[in-house]
Each structure stands twice: as C-alpha cells, then as structure tokens.
Amino acid sequence: MGRSTRTALVALCVWYAAECAQNLMNKLLMQNPKHLLGSLELAEVNTLCSAVLDFAAIKLYFYPRRAAFLLTTLDVRVRRRAQPPLVTWARARELLPVALAMFVSKSLTMAAFKYIPLSLSNTIKMTQAAFTVVLGYLWLGKLPSVWTLLTLVPLLCGAALTVGTDLSFNTIGLLAIFGATCCATFQNLYFKNRVDLTSYPMYGDNSVRDKRDASKNTSTGKQSALVGRMVLVHMIIASAAFVLGFLPATMQEINRRSARATMMTAAAVTATTVGRVEAGLPGVSGVPGAPGVPGVPPMPSTSLMTTYAQILIGSVMTWLGSVGAYIFLASVSTALTHNIAKLVQRMLLIVLSVVLFHNPISMMSAAGMAMSLFGVFCYSIVAQREKRRKKKRQREEQRRKASTARLRENAANLLV
Known about the structure:
By secondary structure, the protein is mainly α. The chain has 14 helices and no strands. Helix 6 packs antiparallel against helix 13, helix 8 packs antiparallel against helix 14 and helix 13 runs antiparallel to helix 14. The longest helix is centred in the middle third of the chain and has 56 residues. The chain is globular, with a radius of gyration of 26 Å. It starts with a helix and ends with a helix.
C-alpha cells in the first residue's frame, strides 16, 4: 500500500467519523427542548470555530512565514519586498456570495434538525444533483445530456416517495432542508465557475521541505498545495460567514431571551393565581420552584456542561470533516471516487440515524431512500463520463488548431 493510498484511507476515516459526529451532536442540540443556541447561533459558533482552526493550521503548517491579514512591519522598503497578505479585500469580495450561501445553508440545516430526522434530511440533500442541473441551466445556460437527465428520474422519484411516506414528516423542516440544499448548490456552482484556485498562493514558499516537494512535483507536494489552498479559502469563507451572520444571530438570541422571560413571567403569574399546583393540575415542570406549570417547556434533560461539550465537539468535528474531505479529494485520482465516498457517507448517516434515534421508517420510505441512492450513484458515473468526453473534445480541438497553425505557417514559408 503506497503513501497516497494510506493518506486517502486515513482522510476517508476522519471524514466519515467527523461528519457523523457533527451531525449527531447538532441533532442532539437542536432536539433539546431548551437548547442554549438557536439555529443561527449554532451556525455562527460553527463558522467561528472553523475560522479559528483554519487560521491555526495556516500559521502553524501551511503558511507559517506569510502575513495572514496585515504586514506587521512599518519599514517601507521591507513592505515593498514582502509578499502580500494571504487575506485581501479582493479575495474576500470574491468569496462573499459563497460565505453568504454557506451561512444560510448551515442555519437552515440546523433548523431542519429540529423538525425532521437525519434520515429524511440526508435523503433530501441527495437531490442536490437535481438542483445543480436546474440552477446550472437557469444561471449558466448549460443543459446536460439526456443520460444525465434520465439519472435524475430515480433520484427525484425516490426522494418524493421518502417524503410522502415518512412517518416524521414536517412541513417546516422539509422547507428548511430544501432551502439548505438549494443554497449549498449555489455555493458549489459559484465556487466552480467564479473562483480561480490558481490565483491563491502556493504553500511551497514556506520551508526547505515544502520547496523540495514542490520542485520535485511529487504527489505529496501537489496534495499539500491543494489542501493548503482549500484551507485558506475555507478560512476566508468561514470568517466572512461569521461577520455576515453576527447581526442575525444576535437578533435571534435577543428574541429568544425575550420569549423566555415572557414565558417565565407568565408561569409565575399562573402559579400565583392558581396557588399550589399539586392540587391536580396537569402540566409539565418548567420553572425551578414552580413545577407543573402548564404551557412552560420542560427543563433540559442534559446538564449545562454536557451541552457545552456537545457544542464544542460539533464545531470541531465540522472543521475536521472539511479538512478530511479536502485531503481525500486531493489524494484520489478522480472526482467520481469522491462523489461515491460522499454517497456512502450519506448512507451511513441514514443508518446511524435510524439506529441511534429510533426513527420509525416504513418500507416504502426505505425503498425511496434506496432509489435515491441509486439515482445519485448513476448521476455520478454519467457526470464523470461527460467530463471525460468534454476533455477529450477539448484536446482534439487543441490538436486541430495546432495542426491548422502549422499548415498556415508552412504555406507562408512556401510563399516567401
């Protein structure tokens, strides 16, 4: 087993474990009746943690000798000779739509976790291929081939069958996860068609070892260069998403605190009016010192430290899953391998959701999930073949143009 294969396997295991852990932690947090954070606030914490960890990885490993934001020296001659900082206003403006789509997608996903199970949310997220085709046609004017459109039939039919027969169906959760999928699709399309990764600095200018890997053009050097660029881009996107979402998250926290204070005041008034609630009033315990007050949600079943631990683990696992996906993508030879690995990850999350949360699933819903998985698998294979055919046509066009140029040059020489 070669070094590249070992790297891919380790990255795949880290990616799977981190994605499963962060999905489970966020699901537990949003299911808590009195969770400390709302959907916007939890997305804000995740983006902040990702930005901080990305910055640490950049300064400790990928770009230790490069200024991240500002040049610290005041010497004009040194500033002229120094390389520009990693994060510039031009790069931030370029990635601003991606950051906005990322924050909205995360927030809607967190909101959907509160209403629908993980199995249903991951099944709906598999319809991202259909959103890609629709948005690609409306925005870029690109119409896929007939075979690509045919692969969407089992995908959409399976998703419709799952949604129609799911026992935990909720309209708010369904709309939220559909919105999250649409935002994630826009994020991917914009990144692929508007962002040029080659304009971002290579990480091979930091140390002797990096220069040696880059000069030899080894697979390790290529992987490190790609991962370094992706971590830098992810840090800019996460930082911009944190800034964009700070005001909405703050407004949500103010509204939550106001609603909680109003609820506690109403509970106190009810307890004062009714008197002692042990006289047979139905209800659930809500406010400490006033058990059984109707209309007040119950206290959380988990302790405060456990909730903080879940928030921290979910945020760190979100970042670790992103880095694992970057390393795996840089280690494999084709994008088809990455797409199939992501498909298996979706399937693993669905199984874990059913086993750990005991979500009831009917036979028709399970058949719909299997049909959606089959549709995504077919779509990945057809899309990879279309890419190969497109590259082949481009190479043939380049050879034809080169041959035409040589013929014209020979004809001009003969005329002279």
